[in-house]
């Protein structure tokens, strides 16, 4: 596996970094293409208005339909339940993160490495101080 560092660029400004692993047999063209696909999917999802899910009661109120049989009401209710499930599935697909989209395309999470370890660096409060966590520009934390 090869470490891939993805720099998020919004309007020529650095907006974060993502680290994932790519299989050794992938060439750089494939890596770029899959990252571009994930970006385009996120842009489309962000532009889509996520509609409110239709509300379907747990069971129908039979008293609202005095001219229909219980079987007809149940059949109509089942159709509404399926439509609500489909709408929820579509919304859940839209709300995937960029990282989830990368992982679905075959990239691996750094967390997937059984030999990896996690260490937390405790910086204390540091109000108003500029910390440089890596080679990126300093981040000022006024609200800590």
For the largest beta-sheet, the strand count, sense and barrel status come to: 2 strands, antiparallel
Number of helices: 3
**Overall domain count:** 2
Structural class by sheet pairing and helices: alpha+beta
Number of strands: 4
Mean pLDDT over the residues: 81
Question: How would you sum up this structure, described in words?
Answer:
- The chain is α+β, with helices and mostly antiparallel strands and 144 residues long.
- The chain folds into two domains: 1-49 and 97-119, no CATH class; 51-94, no CATH class.
- Helices cover 36% and strands 16% of the residues.
- It is built from three helices and four strands.
- The protein has helices at residues 28-47, 70-94, 98-104, and strands at residues 2-10, 13-22, 130-131, 139-140.
- A two-stranded antiparallel sheet has the order 1-2.
- Strand 1 and strand 2 (13-22) form a beta hairpin.
- The longest helix is centred in the middle third of the chain and has 25 residues, at 70-94.
- It is elongated.
- The model is unreliable at 138-144 (pLDDT under 50).
What layout of secondary structure does this protein have?
Elements: E1 2-10, E2 13-22, H1 28-47, H2 70-94, H3 98-104, E3 130-131, E4 139-140
Antiparallel strand pairs: 1-2, 3-4
Summarize the structure.
By secondary structure, this protein is α+β, with helices and mostly antiparallel strands.
Keywords:
single chain; 144 residues; alpha+beta; two-stranded antiparallel ribbon; 4 strands; 36% helix
């Amino acid at each position: 596996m090869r470490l891939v560092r993805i720099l998020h660029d919004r309007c020529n400004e650095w907006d974060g970094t993502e680290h994932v692993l790519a299989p050794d047999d992938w060439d750089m063209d494939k890596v770029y293409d899959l990252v571009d696909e994930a970006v385009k999917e996120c842009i489309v999802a962000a532009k889509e208005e996520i509609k409110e899910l239709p509300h379907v009661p747990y069971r129908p109120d039979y008293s609202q339909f005095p001219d229909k049989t219980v079987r007809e009401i149940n059949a109509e209710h089942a159709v509404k339940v399926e439509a609500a499930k489909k709408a929820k599935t579509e919304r859940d697909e839209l709300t995937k993160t960029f990282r989830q989209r990368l992982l679905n395309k075959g990239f691996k999470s750094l967390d997937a490495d059984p030999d990896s370890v996690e260490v937390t660096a405790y910086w204390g409060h540091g109000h108003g101080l500029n910390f440089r966590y890596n080679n990126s520009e300093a981040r000022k934390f006024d609200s800590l």
